[in-house]
Specification:
The structure is a single chain. This protein has 299 residues and is an alpha+beta fold. The chain has three domains: 92 residues; 42 residues, no CATH class; 143 residues, Four Helix Bundle (Hemerythrin (Met), subunit A), CATH 1.20.120. The protein contains eight helices and six strands, in the order βββαββααβααααα. The strands form two sheets. A four-stranded mixed sheet has the order 1-2-4-3, covered by helices on one side. Strand 1 and strand 2 form a beta hairpin. It starts with 7 loop residues before the first strand and ends with a helix. The relative contact order is 0.14.
Length: 299
């Protein structure tokens, strides 16, 4: 499995019968929690409650809009009223004979008369609405599945971006680990030089060396490198697991950023290769920030 994005879209158009049709759509964007917004025509309160429950059962996070648009102008069946038409023609012929007229009935004119057409206009009857609700219930789960598939495809893109970011972050950590011994040696040498210059030749050299060792240990970034490596591994594990991942990933990135800040504070005055460590630390923070931007859209 891979992570899911909170961005997605899906819709379905359905003709319930020859009098009514509808468009049902889902649209999702990122949000800290699951935030549902349902837009249904009035009179469908029970259906709205059921749709909301289905969405809560199938989605974890994100702002999701569900919209149901009913086409109440669906084509209606129309046929002429044979009895009314016959009555009009009979009346016309009777008047023609009575008044000795020669004209013939004009169907174009007769069809404009009221009552000639019977139109099946029951699009808003209880029966039609019951059929519509049943159709929406039948189609909502396939629509949610399509919606989640799009989120999964978007998640695959996020997964690639985040893994590439982790690769660059891991490379920076490895580079720091590689030059760390040289940086520490240089830091110790500089401290020794400065202390010797400060106190001259009359000092307890062993005591000074012990104090220098303590200061160098405090500037050691081995623990930060180890924790960063552990966080990167944990991050990759979460990317490949089911369930809610976004909040966990965001927390890990906060921890990584804290380690990067500590690394920078410890190596700020090391000089020499320490400058390279500073560059790598800043690069780490940049990659972490890029990852945090992407993680905001992870479900």
């Amino acid at each position: 499995m891979t992570i899911h994005s909170m961005t997605g879209f899906a819709r379905v158009q359905v003709r319930v019968n020859d009098r009514i049709a509808y468009l049902l759509s889902l649209k999702g964007v990122n949000h800290r929690f699951l935030d549902l917004s349902l837009r249904l025509p009035s009179g469908l309160d029970a259906l709205e409650v059921e749709l909301r429950r289905i969405l809560k059962d199938n989605l974890i996070r994100g702002h999701v809009d569900l919209t149901l648009q009913i086409d109440r102008q669906a084509q209606q069946r129309a046929a002429y009223n044979r009895e009314a038409l016959a009555a009009y023609i009979d009346s016309f012929r009777a008047a023609r004979e009575e008044f000795t007229l020669t004209s013939e009935p004009d169907l174009n004119q007769i069809f404009r008369l009221p009552g000639i057409f019977d139109s099946d206009s029951r699009a808003n009857t209880d029966e039609d609405m019951a059929e519509l609700e049943a159709s929406v219930r039948e189609n909502i789960l396939p629509l949610v599945a399509e919606f989640k598939q799009m989120r999964a495809r978007e998640g695959e893109s996020l997964d690639e971006i985040l893994n590439a970011t982790l690769d660059r972050l891991a490379a920076a950590v490895a580079s720091v680990a590689e030059i760390r011994p040289e940086v520490e040696a240089r830091y110790q040498a500089r401290l020794t030089e400065r202390l010797t210059a400060a106190v001259g030749g009359t000092f307890d050299k062993q005591r000074v060396l012990e104090e220098i060792a303590v200061m160098v240990e405090r500037s050691d970034v081995a623990e930060e490198m180890e924790r960063l490596t552990t966080h990167i591994g944990h991050f990759r594990e979460i990317l490949n697991t089911d369930g809610e991942a976004g909040k966990k990933l965001d927390f890990l990135l906060q921890e990584m950023n804290r380690e990067a800040n500590t690394l920078l504070s410890k190596t700020g005055g090391a000089g020499g290769k320490g400058t390279r460590v500073t560059e790598l630390g800043l690069a780490m923070k940049s990659e972490i920030e890029k990852a945090r931007e992407q993680v905001q859209n992870v479900e």
